Amino acid sequence: xxxxxxxxxxxxxxxxxxxxxxxxxxxxxxxxxxxxxxxxxxxxxxxxxxxxxxxxxxxxxxxxxxxxxxxxxxxxxxxxxxxxxxxxxxxxxxxxxxxxxxxxxxxxxxxxxxxxxxxxxxxxxxxxxxxxxxxxxxxxxxxxxxxxxxxxxxxxxxxxxxxxxxxxxxxxxxxxxxxxxxxxxxxxxxxxxxxxxxxxxxxxxxxxxxxxxxxxxxxxxxxxxxxxxxxxxxxxxxxxxxxxxxxxxxxxxxxxxxxxxxxxxxxxxxxxxxxxxxxxxxxxxxxxxxxxxxxxxxxxxxxxxxxxxxxxxxxxxxxxxxxxxxxxxxxxxxxxxxxxxxxxxxxxxxxxxxxxxxxxxxxxxxxxxxxxxxxxxxxxxxxxxxxxxxxxxxxxxxxxxxxxxxxxxxxxxxxxxxxxxxxxxxxxxxxxxxxxxxxxxxxxxxxxxxxxxxxxx
Length: 457
Hints:
35% of the residues lie in helices and 21% in strands.
């Protein structure tokens, strides 16, 4: 009897709790059975613009179409009979191959041996803003991520280089072999970058946790921080002069943050990084790469100083840095990020919907307020002053990260921040690969172009 009851409990668990994951598995051959009875449903943006749909020819043959081409290639993904499914096409496979049409219509279609129409997945994405991000990034490699910090709704998820999912069956092998551009990689969630000075958000938080009198901090930047065994140069070789803690953050002074890093307790520093989800699981419906933080009690001074500046062995995705910023904007609490607003049947009748929910508190309300104040200073008097000329308020942090040990001129340009500072509305993270001095590859003006498109429409 015990074995029988255990078996029944397992079967119920398998069919109720695990059903969606099992059905969505690319290894599950039952998906073909769904497709035999249901025309795959549409995926739309939040305004009803069709991002993916199935075209049915007179002879009954079906073709998956992506009206926006490569614009949503990574987040919507593709559905291919040869190469499987990616993005939301994979995650939402169960709903797309489920029909909740009126039951009389379904019975009629089954008697006539006709397929029913699958449900529609309505996303949180905004096609117009995604297009603005695409245009702003231009020919650069990189990623742009935009979300609402108060709800967790993801508005933009853009990665370049991209590919046209309409042609994936013909070009998949070419895409898969392109190691230099890696067009199949979703750089927003899977990209691993040195975060540069955006990581000073983490360093600043740890310093404030260890030093309640952080406002009394001062440092004379002469263009370099001289350690007994090595010298750490600041990006401003002429020096910033005398800086307090706010000024060090606003001006993104590398020498000052190298000095700050040396004062930190290594074990506590690691805990703070892990509080902010480094080395931890991230809330994400799409595949992602974990961010890494390697400082421990055995870390040497040189590595500690580099880490404090956002260099060293620390790696992060644009998605992760955006989530940290979202928690700051939302008073320390990270909302669960999501991409699907609701599911409807093909006539528009709502079947299910997602509502905002809290994921985890990453920091206290007081700590978030302190970081917000520092990030406001970056825009009002620091390295993101270009955003101070807008008709909307912004708080943020810039970053420039060297990524080549051979060629120090190879850098990534970063900006992470949020708008409408008193009542935060949007979080944005921009990462541009291979910044080489070209103004069109700087993250701040790219972020401004995206935000202008949102607030001026």
